[in-house]
Amino acid sequence: MGAQTRVYKRRIKSITSTKKITKAMEMIAASRIIKAQRQVAASTPYATELTRAVTAVATGSNNRHPLTTEAENPTRAAVLLITSDRGLAGGYSSNAIKAAEALTARLTAEGKEVDSYVVGRKGVAYYGFRDRKVTDSWTGFTDSPQYADAKMVAAPLIEAVSQDTAEGGVDELHIVFTEFVSMMTQNALDDRLLPLSLDRAGEGTEDEGKGHEIMPLFDFEPSAEDVLDALLPRYVESRIYNALLQSAASEHAARRRAMKSATDNAEDLIKSLTRLANQARQADITQEISEIVGGANALADANAGSD
Amino acid sequence: MAAELHVELVAADRNVWSGEATLVVARTTSGDIGVMPGHQPLLGVLESGPVTIRTTDGGTVVAAVHGGFISFADNKLSLLAEIVELADEIDVARAERALERAKSDTDAAAERRAEVRLVAATGKH
User: Fold this and answer.
1) Measured between alpha carbons, how far is residue B15 from residues A45, A142, B6, B100 in Å?
2) pLDDT single digits (tens) A120-158
3) Where in chain B are the domains?
């Protein structure tokens, strides 16, 4: 076997094993998307009911709660960024980071100080490498987040929001995550959780003009303030939980797509390398034949001369 | 049609139970409250406690609810909680062990949780 052929064979072998790995990762990611999607669906009833309740209290009572009213001069905002723990998911984490950077720039331009909270090792590494200040960060659960994880993330954020701005609290709470639209489409987007913008809190209230979805007058038990006090932290937790779940589904979808294109590329590469290897082998054979023929001719000529 | 109300018992990560009922009893921070069809719109904060749902077919569903909310409007009642366990899902032996442990650790919250589970599972109110 010629040297050239051997080199091609070796490269084909290594690409074949890479292809096996990417193919396996693609299939694992595909099976996890289904699970993650199911989790998103399972968490939806709670989120919808909670949103409806928050809207009911916020519209039905006249009291001004610090968590629903906009500060006159917001000076500090918290941004929660959700990325993944692991790589090999295409542009998933970097898209989310880019969205967070854009949001941070926008908030800074509005004259607000930004506190960053980061979920996922990729985001932590990004901020760490650039020596940016991260107020708090969490890693280790982005694959399949549980409600307890969302609670853990939400706790310091809720505390920061309820604190006075002068004492290190924040006026606004933003979240950057990757929305799971479909298997093929995921969007990194930012969303303001608090203060509550009521049109967002009750997406159904847009229909109010059409005569339905009018909020009934609720009887609050024990009182509207207490209900709102208890509701809002749960609301934030549930929104964060939902964002974590959607991000997890998006991560798997992004990884599946990235691994699919990696597998496709490996296939293309193997195909073209096989062609080259065949060519080289053919060239070797041709050369060998011409060497034999040439040798035989030379021998015959020499024999004819000696006769 | 007999008066009935639609109940959704929802935990943070799943829909636990839904169906028609004639009476729902839950414990709010200011005491037990019973909701029957046609109740005035209500929004309340729940305490850790058992929730009893009397279904239209005469059955009873009991669940242990740990914190959360009750909201009622338009004959639709929703019970939201981070943790909801139906009575038949509760492992009594495990709850008893948890209760013992909580008592020895003097962890009031865990003790309360275990007690609520036991009350819901054994039906002793």
Assistant:
1) 7, 23, 14, 30
2) 999 999 999 999 989 999 999 988 899 889 999 999 998
3) 5-86, 90-122
**A129 touches A118 (CB < 8 A):** no
Question: How many Å lie between the alpha carbon of B47 and the closest alpha carbon of chain A?
Answer: 11
CATH 2.60.15.10 fits B5-86, yes or no: yes
DSSP B14-37: EEEEEEEEEEEEEEETTEEEEE-T
ipTM of the complex: 0.78
- Taking an 8 Å cut-off on Cβ atoms, the answer to whether A147 and B29 are in contact is no
pLDDT of residue A62: 63
Comparing CB atoms, the residue among A49, A218, A231 nearest residue B41 is A218
| pLDDT value, residue A201 | 45
- Overall CATH class of domain A26-206+213-259: alpha beta
Can you tell me whether residue B70 is helix, strand or coil? strand
User: Which residues touch B103 (CB under 8 Å, ≥6 apart)?
Assistant: B111
Residues in Cβ contact with A7 at an 8 Å cutoff, skipping those fewer than 6 apart: none
pLDDT in tens, B116-125: 887 777 765 5
Helices B92-105 & B108-122, crossing angle to 10 degrees? 160
The residue type found at A103 is L
Out of A39, A45, A53, closest to residue B69 by CB: A53
pTM for this predicted structure: 0.83
